[in-house]
Design goal:
Distance between the termini: 33 Å
Radius of gyration: 21 Å
Helix content: 25-40%
Strand order of the largest sheet: 8-9-10-12-11
CATH superfamily of the largest domain: Nucleic acid-binding proteins
Number of strands: 16
Low-confidence stretches: 1-22, 133-141
Mean pLDDT: 83
CATH topology of the largest domain: OB fold (Dihydrolipoamide Acetyltransferase, E2P)
Number of helices: 7
Largest sheet: 5 strands, mixed, barrel
Shape: flat
Strand content: 25-35%
CATH class of the largest domain: Mainly Beta
Length: about 280
């Protein structure tokens, strides 16, 4: 089961462009509409055609939209957003993130999701599709739960998981699931982290940046919304080049023309390092 998960993720990353495009919608990046702004800066006075989005607010008389953060101005549809240059991950239902199992007991796994609160993964939320959840007449009211427990995936402290956020609010810790396409334990490879607000720059507009990174470094990449990136290359040289490239993207996330510059950087570095 775990190996199947790895293979599926690889297919998603390398072959299924249509699926990739669906995934990239959550990371949409349009560098042409972005400028660095500061708190209190007026982003637009056209309040008839635009609404305040993330990191923005109306002024007192609602004639202007102003920034609340230091960050990148983003126009998305009719919303004006400010994406902070730095910040921690705020869980939202439906997000796919990389989690690290840091504790476990019979009723739940405690997972680090790079957020203010740890995530909770219950065994019932690890049962893969197609597994039998319960049997009629299997020993009374406890039969179903025993069958469910037997079908649940087993994880260990230190395991790296691709999970989806089931629920998240201010009162309760985020609840996670490993049930779904491309979710579950990741074998091999390793994880690096960058500031979550910079993840869209690793994706690029319509996935342009990440597709270029994969092709030039021959490396499988799984990028998630909590700032963590799983990668696995065909050799250490390609993996090292990819890590350095991602770090460079994070450093220069506020600049324009980044995809073209990164392509030139990687091609030149491959020549210098003598890797194909």
């Amino acid at each position: 089961m775990e190996n199947e998960t790895d293979e599926n993720v690889g297919e998603d990353i390398q072959e299924d462009d249509e699926t990739e495009d669906e995934e990239f919608e959550d990371f949409e990046d349009d560098e042409d509409t972005r400028d660095i702004v500061v708190p209190g800066e007026v982003l637009t006075e056209d309040t008839k055609n635009f609404l305040p989005g993330r990191g923005t607010i109306y002024n007192n008389d609602r004639t202007k939209i102003i920034s609340l953060n230091i960050g990148l101005k983003q126009i998305k549809k009719n919303y004006v957003n400010v994406i902070p240059l730095r910040g921690f991950y705020t869980p939202r239902p439906g997000d796919k993130v990389i989690a690290l199992v840091i504790d476990k007991n019979p009723v739940k796994y405690k997972c680090d999701i790079n957020a203010k609160d740890f995530g909770t993964l219950k065994p019932k939320n690890t049962i893969k599709r197609g597994k039998i959840r319960s049997f009629r007449g299997s020993g009374g009211s406890g039969g179903g739960s025993r069958q469910e427990e037997a079908n649940a995936e087993k994880y260990e402290i230190g395991d790296i998981l691709i999970v989806k956020i089931l629920s998240a609010d201010r009162l309760n810790k985020p609840e996670l699931t490993t049930v779904g396409k491309y979710l579950g334990k990741k074998n091999n490879g390793f994880v690096i982290s960058i500031d979550p607000p910079k993840i869209p720059r690793v994706i690029g507009r319509n996935g342009s940046m990440i597709k270029m990174l994969k092709n030039l470094t021959k490396t499988n990449i799984f990028v998630t919304q909590n700032g963590r990136i799983w990668l696995k290359g065909e050799d250490i040289a390609h993996e090292r080049l990819l890590v350095e490239s991602i770090q460079k993207i994070a450093t220069e996330a506020h600049t324009v023309g980044l995809t073209d510059r990164m392509q030139e950087f990687i091609i030149n570095e491959k020549k210098v390092r003598g890797i194909e």
